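Reminder to self: tokens first, then the designed residues, so the page reads top to bottom the way the pipeline ran.
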């Protein structure tokens, strides 16, 4: 089930796109149905004064620990204390501290908001479109087996996720987007004129080499993937050497000889006499 934080903003996106023409009565009914929707409306009223003159909100991209990255918002990094009354009300309604984040698209820039930080300190991050040289927006495909289908065995299915990365001035933004999130971002790339002029690349771009190495999540994932493969290959090779050593071959044969001691060499099949494995188990 989709996170209620995301569901509320998906509803707002439909309103901004004109997909649903809600009457006053319809909106009142929505307000009565969910405290979350009311809270988000109030939150957006608090955010509106920070918009520049002529700046208009185009869409919202909500992110959660459930479907997006949680490196900086989960565990110890996700700990925070809600002191202000409105922040405490948020924690009570959403049962969240720093997991719910929001990327707001306007006609001039992107605003990144960690909800509880904004309610506590009115803190948010601004990424003007004219300060972004390029954007990494890459689609990835992953396969999985669906065991919930009403057929014998599992059905092979595919899903997608996106890598989003850009630098705006001295600020670096990196996020992994679920498939539905990627659709929202792609729509903004196609509809916001200021975003259309930004180069879309396949590689991470940084102004400093230091940031290219130490603030590059894509590079870190590739290194982790490569390290994992090396570890697996090392373990496979080590097991192979142990098996050969058990038969009296290779650099591990002395290990079995020292553990097993002299065996019943007369019972070892012809051609394998002295094999440590047979000395132990025959």
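Designed residues (282 positions):
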């Amino acid at each position: 089930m989709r996170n209620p934080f995301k569901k509320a903003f998906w509803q707002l996106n439909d309103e901004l796109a004109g997909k649903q023409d809600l009457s006053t009565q319809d909106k009142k009914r929505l307000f009565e149905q969910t405290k979350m929707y009311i809270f988000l409306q109030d939150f957006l009223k608090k955010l509106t004064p920070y918009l520049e003159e002529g700046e208009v909100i185009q869409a919202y991209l909500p992110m959660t620990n459930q479907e997006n990255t949680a490196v900086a918002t989960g565990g110890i990094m996700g700990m925070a204390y809600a002191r202000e009354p409105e922040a405490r009300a948020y924690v009570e309604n959403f049962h969240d501290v720093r997991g719910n984040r929001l990327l707001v698209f306007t006609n001039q820039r992107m605003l990144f908001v960690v909800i509880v930080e904004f309610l506590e300190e009115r803190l948010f991050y601004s990424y003007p479109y004219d300060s972004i040289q390029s954007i990494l927006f890459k689609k990835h495909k992953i396969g999985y087996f669906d065991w919930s289908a009403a057929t014998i065995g599992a059905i092979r299915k595919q899903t997608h996720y996106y890598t989003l990365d850009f630098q705006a001035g001295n600020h670096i933004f990196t996020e992994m987007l679920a498939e539905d999130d990627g659709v929202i971002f792609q729509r903004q790339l196609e509809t916001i004129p200021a975003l259309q002029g930004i180069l879309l690349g396949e590689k991470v771009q940084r102004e400093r080499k230091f940031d290219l190495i130490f603030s590059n999540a894509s590079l870190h994932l590739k290194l982790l993937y490569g390290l994992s493969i090396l570890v697996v290959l090392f373990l496979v090779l080590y097991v192979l050497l142990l098996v050969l050593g058990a038969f009296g071959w290779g650099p591990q044969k002395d290990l079995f000889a020292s553990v097993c001691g002299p065996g019943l060499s007369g019972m070892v099949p012809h051609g394998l006499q002295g094999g440590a494995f047979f000395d132990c188990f025959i």
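Residues 265 and 273 are 6 Å apart (CA to CA).
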